[in-house]
């Protein structure tokens, strides 16, 4: 606890002259990711992979307003018939807060938005073959590092909570209520003025 407090004091006490230097600007982003599914959905669809493209608009005070569009395709679990499917188009946006804006740039973020989810699921007592729009959100942390010129490399880890079916909406499907998971991504950004 003392170490964390000391680190926060050091970050808060960085001289204004150093903070004035910045590698951070508005940017276009491309990210690939892997999601490890959690909960009752994981035996049927244990993981997903996909990508995002997005735009981050740099605001004062170390904040970036981010919007992104992505796609994820879930892998089938062992013994699950190959005709079953789960995939989603993600439309998300939210703030990022950068602790530092020069050199190694760690950040926290929150994204909220909609998912266009395509499902083809057949479980005991329930069958679904549909496309629907659902609420979703992410919270996570990441870090970015300028490589050369306007090119920056970044990595992220996040918790996803993407809803699939409203709880209780279908009697036989309560165990498949959402698409939660841990998501890990690596991407690049290109700074724009």
Describe, in plain words, how this protein is organized in 3D:
- It is a single chain.
- With 193 residues, the protein is mostly beta strands.
- It has one domain: Porin (Beta Barrel), CATH 2.40.160.
- The protein is built from two helices and eight strands.
- An eight-stranded antiparallel barrel has the order 1-2-3-4-5-6-7-8.
- Strand 2 and strand 3 form a beta hairpin.
- The radius of gyration is 19 Å and the shape is elongated.
- The model is unreliable at 7-19 and 166-170 (pLDDT under 50).
Annotate the secondary structure layout.
Blueprint: H1 2-12, H2 16-20, E1 26-37, E2 47-59, E3 63-75, E4 85-98, E5 104-123, E6 126-148, E7 151-162, E8 181-192
Antiparallel strand pairs: 1-2, 1-8, 2-3, 3-4, 4-5, 5-6, 6-7, 7-8
In brief:
The chain is built from two helices and eight strands.
Query: Helical proportion?
Result: under 10%
Radius of gyration: 19 Å
Q: State the end-to-end CA separation.
A: 40 Å
Overall average pLDDT = 84
Tell me the total number of β-strands: 8
Annotated CATH architecture: Beta Barrel
CATH class: Mainly Beta
Give a quick account of the main beta sheet: strands, pairing sense, barrel closure: 8 strands, antiparallel, barrel
Order of adjacent strands in the largest pleated sheet: 1-2-3-4-5-6-7-8
List the total number of helices: 2
Spell the H/E element sequence. Answer: HHEEEEEEEE
Provide the domain count. Answer: 1
Which overall shape is indicated by the principal axes computed on the Cα atoms? elongated
Strand content: over 45%
CATH topology: Porin
């Amino acid at each position: 606890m003392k170490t964390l407090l000391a680190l926060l004091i050091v970050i808060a006490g960085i001289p204004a002259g150093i903070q004035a230097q910045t590698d951070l600007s508005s940017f276009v982003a491309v990210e690939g990711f892997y999601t490890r599914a959690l909960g009752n959905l994981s035996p049927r669809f244990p993981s997903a992979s996909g990508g995002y493209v997005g735009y981050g608009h740099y605001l004062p005070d170390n904040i970036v307003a981010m919007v992104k569009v992505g796609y994820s395709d879930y892998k089938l679990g062992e013994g699950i018939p190959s005709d079953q499917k789960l995939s989603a188009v993600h439309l998300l946006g939210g703030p990022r807060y950068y602790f530092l804006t020069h050199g190694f740039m760690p950040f926290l973020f929150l994204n909220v938005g909609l998912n266009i989810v395509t499902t083809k699921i057949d479980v005991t007592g329930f069958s679904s073959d549909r496309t629907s729009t659902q609420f979703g959100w992410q919270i996570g942390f990441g870090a970015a590092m300028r490589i050369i010129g306007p090119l920056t490399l970044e990595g992220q880890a996040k918790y996803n909570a993407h809803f699939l079916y409203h709880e209780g909406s279908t009697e036989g499907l309560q165990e498949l209520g959402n698409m939660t998971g841990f998501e890990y991504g690596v991407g690049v950004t290109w700074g724009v003025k």
